[in-house]
Specification:
Blueprint (H helix, E strand, L loop, with lengths): L2 E6 L5 E7 L2 E8 L12 H23 L8 E7 L3 H18 L3 E5 H6 L18 E6 L4 E8 L2 E7 L5 H11 L6 H9 L22 H17 L3 H32 L3 E5 L6 H14 L2 E3 L10 H13 L20
Parallel strand pairs: 1-4, 4-5, 6-9, 9-10
Antiparallel strand pairs: 1-2, 2-3, 6-7, 7-8
Helix pairs in contact: 1-2, 4-5, 4-6, 4-7, 5-7, 6-7, 7-8
């Protein structure tokens, strides 16, 4: 019986989870509302909040799991990528707990956690898991990638953004329109009320399977500037249609490359992961394309799309089974050059 405690602190959510032999026992998360007033995450405030939250969050995760700390087999933690100050809190706590319990450490790449989120099993649900190899469209505020997953520890990046991530494009759209932070959920909600064919925005022409979203953001910026110059009330009168049209543009860019990747590889097992995988328009697009093209699609539960420790624990579980351990001299890193490490 292998019980893995997962700790996630890469950005502004402090989370801890317990997984036993691949099945989730608990998943606790503490969010930080302080950043809303600034329209984005303030690193210093984030790290201070992690210091306040991490002890009660880990304690609650162990309690909800119905175990004692001494039952833990290993401690998995997010080493990176992310905000260095936030990562330092989680890494330091994991080290201290490792020493106190005399249990091994397992470092986890945050992005691998998102890709493997579909393997989190729950006792009250019979959720199917992808077969290898499968393709994962990894989309978040910092990443937009198409990953070929050959096994739980064998990843191959087929395409990625050459500039900005799609999640950043959603957030910038919200900021330009004064809709608040985080932008993705707000844009998604308003898009459901709008006409996606009302407006048109520039689409990049990037060869291969790589993405680009900087031009789409610039197109929106100029569109809003010019329309407001002609009509100061344009934004308020058309915000639903703007969101719907902009969201559709982003989703079509994502889906175009995903379809191309599936065609080139012949892989029909398709998943999505990362914060933007919670977007209702993207989930619908993946599902509909799957029906049309004979894909078997897997959508992570909404609670596993955002940063959470359950995905760190399941990734750590696979690393543990592979015999991997991390020394106490490990240091957090804000960027990881190779996704596979």
């Amino acid at each position: 019986m292998d019980i893995i405690l997962g700790i996630e602190s890469s950005c502004d959510d402090t989370s801890a989870a317990v997984i036993m032999d691949g099945y989730l026992l608990s998943n606790v998360l503490a969010s930080q509302d302080v950043h809303r007033a600034y329209g984005g995450v303030i690193p210093e405030l984030a790290s201070r909040a992690h210091q306040l939250n991490i002890v009660p969050v880990v304690s609650e995760a162990i309690s909800r799991a119905g175990i004692s700390a001494s039952d833990i087999t290993a401690i998995a933690f997010t080493r990176g990528p992310g905000l260095l100050g936030s990562l330092l809190v989680g890494t330091s706590f994991a080290k201290g707990l490792s020493i106190a319990l005399d249990r091994p450490l397992i470092e986890v790449n945050h992005l691998q956690g998102h890709v493997l989120a579909n393997f989190i099993r729950q006792y009250d649900k019979d959720t199917p898991v992808p077969e290898f190899p499968y393709l994962c469209l990894l989309v978040s505020g910092g990443n937009s990638q198409i990953v070929k997953v050959n096994s739980p520890l064998d990843f191959e990046i087929l395409g990625q953004t050459i500039d900005d991530a799609v999640g950043e494009a959603f957030d910038k759209c919200s900021k330009m329109m004064g809709l608040g932070y985080p932008g993705g959920p707000v844009v998604d909600r308003l898009a459901k009320l709008g006409d996606p064919d009302k407006f048109h925005f520039a689409r990049p022409h990037v060869p291969g399977l790589d993405y680009s979203f900087s031009g789409v953001k610039t197109s929106l910026l100029y569109f809003v500037r010019d329309r407001l110059a002609a009509d100061p009330d344009f934004m308020e009168k058309n915000k639903e249609d703007i969101c719907a049209s902009f969201q559709r543009t982003l989703i079509e860019i994502l889906m175009d490359k995903l379809i191309k990747a599936a065609r080139q590889t012949g892989i029909r097992q398709i998943t999505i992961g990362g914060g933007v995988s919670a977007n209702s328009g993207l989930r619908t697009a993946v599902t509909e394309e799957g029906r049309k093209r004979g894909w078997t699609t897997y959508l992570p539960e909404f609670k596993f799309t955002t940063d959470n420790a359950a995905m760190i624990a399941i990734a750590g579980y696979f690393h543990y089974l592979n015999g991997e351990r991390t020394g106490l001299d490990v240091a957090p890193v804000s960027r990881i050059a190779d996704f596979r490490s």
